[in-house]
Amino acid sequence: MKKLLFITIFLFTFSGYAQFGVKISYVAFDLNSKGENLNESEIIDGLGLGLDYGFNLEKFKLIAGINADFVNEDGEESESVITPSLVVKYYIGNKIGLSSGLAVPIWDIPRGQGLFPSAFHVPLGLDYDISDKISIFAIYSIAAQNRLDIDYYENNFPTGSWGIDSITDNSFNFGIHYSF
């Protein structure tokens, strides 16, 4: 009963200050492989589409969202990356916002092949409100976890023969957002 009351109060409290939004963006992932004698980087890019739901709280906005990014390397089949996120935006002035939070990009790869399909990210963003409904944004998302499954390599290959210690997937998004 207490939970139901809390949820009801929460929804009524924020219902007048909440709004849905959609966005479209250019997205680029920087895949980094590092090891003892290895430091390689590969960029794959594509199109991102997203939905979000934000609660306005004075100079702050709490935003829960989900993105679907469709990326590919030249001439290869497209991969999808689904990214749920929770971000806090702080407005500096009337039109500019800074944001940060937590995101978890989930790659469309099966588990058990040496890579974790997901890892925590810390997105850092900047946006500019063109109008009450439209804004442009740029987000750089820093991988906070290694996606390499060390246990997989230790169990399937002789110790150290793979030569890779970490794989990360930092990303950059630039696009336009529309609020309903």
Q: Element order, helices and strands?
A: HEEEEEEEEHE
Biggest pleated-sheet summary: 8 strands, antiparallel, barrel
Helix-residue proportion: 10-25%
Widest β-sheet, arrangement of strands = 1-2-3-4-5-7-8-9
Q: Termini distance?
A: 33 Å
Number of helices: 2
Q: Which percent range describes the beta-strand content? A: over 45%
Poorly predicted regions are: none
Based on DSSP secondary structure assignment, what is the total number of beta strands?
9
The structural class is mainly beta
Radius of gyration: 19 Å
Task: Output mean pLDDT.
Answer: 84
- Overall geometric form: elongated
Describe what this molecule looks like in 3D:
11% of the residues lie in helices and 60% in strands. With 180 residues, the protein is mostly beta strands. Strands 1-2-3-4-5-7-8-9 form an eight-stranded antiparallel beta barrel. The longest helix is centred in the N-terminal third of the chain and has 13 residues, at 2-14. The radius of gyration is 19 Å and the shape is elongated. The two termini are 33 Å apart. The model has no long low-confidence stretch (mean pLDDT 84).
Question: Keyphrases for this structure?
Answer:
mainly beta; 2 helices
In short:
By secondary structure, the protein is mainly beta. The chain has helices at 2-14, 150-156, and strands at residues 18-35, 38-57, 60-72, 79-92, 96-103, 106-107, 121-129, 134-143, 166-179. β2 (38-57) and β3 (60-72) form a beta hairpin.
